[in-house]
Design goal:
Elements lengths: L1 H10 L15 E6 L4 H16 L2 E6 L2 H10 L7 E5 H9 L19 H4 L8 E12 L22 E4 L6 H11 L8 H9 L5 E5 L2 H9 L5 E5 L3 H7 L3 E3 L7 E9 L6 H11 L2 H9 L14 H4 L6 H6 L5 H19 L2
Parallel strand pairs: 1-2, 1-3, 5-6, 5-7
Antiparallel strand pairs: 3-9, 4-7, 4-8, 4-9
Helix pairs in contact: 4-14, 6-7, 7-14
């Protein structure tokens, strides 16, 4: 959701308005954020349209709004939908998507295991990221090296956390449970007791990437729990901001693509997913700052890879999140979070 919010602020223009589909051509309808739309048109949509001889039209918006539109239309209206894994899990649970025929997506063979079938028979992940810690290395001494460092006394009035309604917010409850030596799903009391211990350090929570960038750039905070796609923007404002190399690992965040239950162009939708996972396409998207690659054969320079979750070792280090369990717990956690931090 966070990423979607950023996208909505940046790219509203890109999409829906294109020329009317030519008569006789098949038309693939895609629901997505529209973020990085110019680059996606150049490196993904344009070559796919040349291959399929089809047209593509778009529906844009954040995760919740777009998923709700598909729900209102009974699973139809678009052929494909891009979502973060927490929202695609909701769509699967509500029967809005259809299972993928993996025999029609041969490029899945070259994808990291974590991205092949993150939600069973449904759509794969086409990019991945991390939820970890960003801090200003010029002000935070010693360096942040583990999740427990969020509770350090020297970070008093220097910390920000994602709001509970963002994609990463509920993961904060999970990590707090781990800090307390418990499982937040089984013992939320312990997790929220640990979160209460963060109040002296917390300046405020944030709901968008631009809010987080502003908190760093104004010097209100020196440290934040955040998704890695915000790092490049933060470093433009604060060049000494760095991604913490956490000894206990960052959490995995996945963006998925699914075929809706009411899709009219199922074959074309499978062709698009396979195209999206083609090594040369993933290479282009990563090189040009669009998405982190999930294809193992993509090779980036250190500078190109700097902003991404990239490489077998880094991917293997990610901590997976059970989205079904997290979504089931979210309502209770949201109420308790608002009670704790809303005061």
């Amino acid at each position: 959701m966070l990423r979607a919010t950023v996208a909505a602020a940046v790219t509203l223009a890109l999409v829906a308005a294109g020329p009317a589909p030519a008569q006789g051509k098949k038309t693939l309808t895609i629901s997505w954020w529209g973020f990085n739309g110019d680059k996606l048109e150049e490196y993904l949509m344009k070559p796919f349209k040349a291959q399929c001889g089809c047209d593509i039209v778009y529906e844009t918006g954040n995760n919740a709004d777009r998923l709700n539109k598909v729900k209102i239309r009974g699973g139809g209206g678009v052929d494909l939908i891009y979502l973060t894994d927490s929202f695609s899990e909701i769509g699967i649970k509500e029967g809005l998507f259809q299972k993928i025929d993996r025999s029609k997506i041969p490029n899945l063979a070259g994808v990291y295991d974590i991205a092949k079938a993150p939600q069973g028979d449904y759509g794969p992940a086409y990019t991945l990221g991390r939820y970890g810690i960003i801090y200003d290395s010029a002000k935070v001494k010693p360096p942040v090296t583990a999740w427990k460092d969020l509770w350090r006394a020297d970070l008093k009035s220097a910390l920000s956390l994602p709001g509970i309604t963002t994609t990463a917010g509920p993961m904060t409850v999970i990590l707090a449970g781990t800090y307390a030596g418990s499982d937040a799903f089984k013992d939320p009391d312990a997790a929220f007791k640990a979160l209460a211990g963060l109040k002296p350090n917390l300046v405020k929570t944030y709901n968008t990437g631009s809010e987080l960038v502003n908190l760093f750039s104004t010097g209100e905070i020196t440290t934040a729990a955040a998704q890695d796609f915000t790092l490049a923007q933060i470093q433009k404002a604060v060049p000494t901001a760095v991604w913490a190399d956490l000894s206990d690992g960052a959490y995995a965040t996945l963006n998925t693509i699914n075929i809706t239950k009411g899709a009219k162009e199922v074959e074309l939708a499978h062709q698009f997913i396979d195209f999206l996972l083609r090594p040369d396409i993933q290479q282009k998207l990563a090189e040009n700052g669009v998405d982190a690659p999930v294809v193992k054969s993509v090779t980036l320079t250190p500078e190109q890879a700097r902003q991404w979750t990239y490489g077998a070792a880094m991917v293997a280090s990610l901590k997976p999140v059970d989205m079904a369990k997290m979504n089931a717990a979210k309502a209770e956690w949201t109420d308790r979070w608002q009670e704790l931090f809303g005061k």
